[in-house]
Amino acid sequence: MNSIKSIGIIIGLSLLLTACNAGRPTVATQKPPIPHELDERLERIRMTGLDGKPLTLDAFAGRPVFLNFWASWCAPCISEMSTIEEVHRLYGAEVAFLAVSTDSLAAIRQFRETRGFTFTFAHLEGGYIDAYVVKLPTTLLISREGKLVFEEEGMRVWTSEALRRKVEEIAR
User: Fold this and answer.
1) How many domains does the chain have?
2) Measured between alpha carbons, how far is 35 from 43 in angstroms, rounded to an integer?
């Protein structure tokens, strides 16, 4: 009787441990390493500026770019925006800051104006998946040479020393 109980407990614990690891990415499902050159993903990004004119990353050629993918319904996206604004105030003369969303142009304009952000916002044509963005927010740092040098998924405090230093590195 005790051995049956013991087996039941062992099976239960095994199932529990298996369930705890179920959400973790495996080596096979993790994202590939960041490419070192402006890849197809970046070339495919098509945007519309708040002025209604088409916008591509080519418009920022020769200038480093801080590219943030966000949405108005994404609470973590909104939470990190104020720290992006602060870093923009520090490095905006050297780095192009760009926040893109699939929200309508009107919604993006209203969001930017009501919150008083001063960096560039644009509408992302197509969808996030066209840019291979699978989680919001996602931020890409692109060097002045057009190389993708840093990619970060999820909400971040961009004023933290480590992340601010990343922006400073591309500003040089």
Assistant:
1) 1
2) 13
